[in-house]
Input
Amino acid sequence: MITVGFTLIGRGSWSGGESYLRNMLSVIASELGGRVQAKLFLTPEQRSTVGASFDHMLAAPAIVDERVIGAGLGKRGLIALAGGSDRAFADLMVAHAVDLVFEVAQWLGNRFPLPVISWIPDFQHRRLPHLFPRRAWWRRELGFRLQTSGNRTIMLSSEDALADCGTFYPASRGKTAVVRFAIDVDPGAVMARTEAARRAHDLPERFFFLPNQFWIHKNHGLVVDSLRHIDRLGALGSVPPIVLTGRTTDPRDPTLFKRLMGLAQTYRVESHFRHLGLIPYDDVVALMGATDCLINPSHFEGWSTTVEEAKSLGAPMLLSDIRLHREQAPDALFFPPDNAEILAQRLLEIGRQPTVVRDSVTVLQGRQQVRRRGYAAALLALFEKTKTAAR
Output
């Protein structure tokens, strides 16, 4: 049995981090029982925020302690940098018989007494540096330099990220592992909720779905421009409305959401650019099961959660032509992320065709189980390798 210590990922503006953790803990519980035990460590403040929502995925309730390290370099990270280890957190891990620690957006120190796996979701600040204020860029860069040059295993979510890691941080070579995650959903249960979710949000039978957070790199503006182009052709009625969900705040561009919605009104396409707000995750997945097509126009992704959800539920996909999307969903329909006219053509093509008949629930469940087991096997191999290498 390998015991892995986790801390909370995400919260705040990055809800995807928390979703990633929930999914990983759920897969460990369902697929790796008896071989891996996950222990979640929370600060008292975090416990008051998330409550017991993680406990059903764990063999024992989450452990609450003042010594739990939070995200970011911060004072604790600077102490670890100077002294080589966050001793308080290390003592906590040892006291709870943890074999290895999962580190995300943190720095536990290069002489931390337990093996460490550092998950780096992506290298967006290197690929799109113009989207980061100088201070934010350097904070992220310093953390990655520490992790990739330190004595730890670097876990990445794609071959695309692996290539970036080796290019930007040569010291990481030989210390990396690619673990592609799979969403922990049951297609049968989701498909049974699709009609109720569609009616609850007053959506037509046919709609396109874009459930990305309103961050500048997600490229929502291209969709508005494509709708404007379709309207100029007099063909807006041939395209189902595009339904959007997700957080509306981006610290890098606080006025982005307001500008985009205003632009949709100016172009008189607001009926086809409809934002539902931040709706429950169960509703997001159910709408994925009901949509005619998932749209993801993003300029950059680490390993897209929305694409993984669409794969699980057999939803057709219309994706920006970036390397990650080609790796994750090679059978999707693609468009250049800077060409609104081609996206408009793709939207018209799909809109004018009959609704795609999806595979049966049984087929979807079988494929999803294969993906889940592959994810679990990759996690187990990484945990075993990391623990063995530390002996």
About this structure: The longest helix spans residues 361-389. Residues 2-178+370-389 form a domain with the Rossmann fold fold (CATH 3.40.50.2000). Residues 187 and 235 are 34 Å apart (CA to CA). The chain has 16 helices and 13 strands.
